[in-house]
């Protein structure tokens, strides 16, 4: 079996003062995947990432990065991962190109192998190569952080909330760069509050809440976990106060003179049955559309259940 890109077993962290930020988290990230780590504010995502980055000491469990144990082979572990933190961290008096060169030097990348300009081009900052970093906009700074995390060509890139405060267009650019890295074989781990983003980008999603893992599944499976489905039905005549009803319907509402919005649980009924029940009550169906549950629905129901 190929080794995982990241393997975490029973990872725990209790901060001084007693806050238990991680409580026995076990998960593994497959090589070549895009893995999403989701959770409400304060769930423990940054703590987990900071442990991998060597910025926070764990209080229990083990973590291996690209097969290297963070306790026993820290240098190899660190060389295998590039981390983009939530906070913007670089000297504002250096230019972007200097920032990348210095970082490459820090990782011992020989001058001939440095790809600073190529990295700036990839994050659309080549025209800012020689500007002071402090003059960059927030979105530009974030893209510089991504380039900085990639100077040593790590096989894993971790992004902790990389698009917080970044506008939609820049976010799209950032994600297309992240996708192209992934296509070239880089394993991606990201935390985000944008659930749609996670749904669109990630192959697999783990959710943590209060320091505990509450889900870890392929994205599709996770989305399928939402039981509520909604079907919009247009019928052939005006609806009066007597709406069709059945105990298979969780909720039924009139959304127009001839249209109905029916919510049902997919483990109790199928769309066909729901439509059959409407027809059975004397309505001919003119049009139908369905709404599939998205990650937001799953996320809310899981975090609510675990609260
Ligand atoms: N240095 C610290 N000392 C004490 N408690 C801390 C420290 N850092 C984080 N915590 C606490 O640990 C818990 C987990 O925080 P963490 O930053 O890992 O969450 P998060 O999921 O990344 O949240 P967010 O999405 O808001 O960044 C929180 O209750 C937080 O207040």
TrEMBL record:
Q: Which domain of life is it from?
A: Bacteria
Q: Which Pfam families match?
A: ABC_tran
The residue ranges of the ABC transporter domain are: 6-235
- Can you name this protein? ABC-2 type transport system ATP-binding protein
Q: Which regions form coiled coils?
A: none
Record the organism.
Sphingobium lignivorans
Q: What UniProt keywords are attached to this protein's entry? A: ATP-binding, Nucleotide-binding, Transport
SMART domains associated with the record: AAA
PANTHER family xref list: ABC TRANSPORTER ATP-BINDING PROTEIN (PTHR42711), ABC-TYPE MULTIDRUG TRANSPORT SYSTEM, ATPASE COMPONENT (PTHR42711:SF15)
A GO molecular-function annotation: ATP binding
Enumerate the transmembrane spans: none
């Amino acid at each position: 079996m190929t080794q995982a890109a990241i393997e975490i077993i029973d990872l725990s962290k209790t901060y001084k003062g007693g806050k238990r930020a991680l409580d026995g988290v076990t998960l593994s990230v497959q090589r070549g995947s895009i893995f999403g780590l989701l959770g409400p504010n304060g769930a423990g995502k940054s703590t987990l990432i900071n442990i991998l980055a060597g910025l926070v000491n764990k209080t229990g469990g083990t973590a291996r990065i690209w097969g290297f144990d963070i306790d026993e082979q820290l240098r190899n572990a660190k060389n295998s991962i590039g981390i983009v933190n939530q906070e913007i961290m670089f000297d504002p008096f250096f230019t972007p190109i200097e920032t990348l060169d210095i970082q490459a030097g820090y990782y011992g990348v020989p001058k001939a192998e440095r790809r600073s300009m190529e990295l700036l081009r990839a994050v659309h900052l080549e025209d800012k190569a020689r500007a002071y970093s402090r003059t960059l906009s927030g979105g530009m700074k974030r893209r510089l952080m991504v380039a900085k995390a990639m100077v040593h060509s790590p096989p894993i890139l971790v992004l902790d909330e990389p698009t917080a405060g970044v506008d939609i267009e820049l976010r799209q650019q950032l994600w297309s760069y992240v996708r192209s890295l992934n296509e070239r074989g880089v394993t991606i781990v990201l935390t985000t509050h944008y659930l749609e983003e996670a749904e669109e980008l990630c192959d697999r999603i783990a959710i943590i809440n209060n320091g505990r893992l509450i889900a870890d599944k392929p994205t599709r499976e996770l989305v399928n976990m939402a039981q509520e489905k909604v079907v919009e039905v247009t019928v052939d005549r005006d609806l009066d106060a007597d709406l069709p009803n059945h105990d298979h319907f969780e909720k039924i509402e009139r959304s127009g003179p001839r249209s109905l919005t029916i919510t049902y649980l997919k483990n109790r009924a199928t769309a066909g049955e729901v439509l059959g029940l409407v027809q059975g009550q004397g309505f001919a169906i003119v049009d139908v559309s369905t709404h599939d549950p998205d990650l937001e629905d799953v996320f809310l129901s899981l975090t609510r259940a675990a609260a």
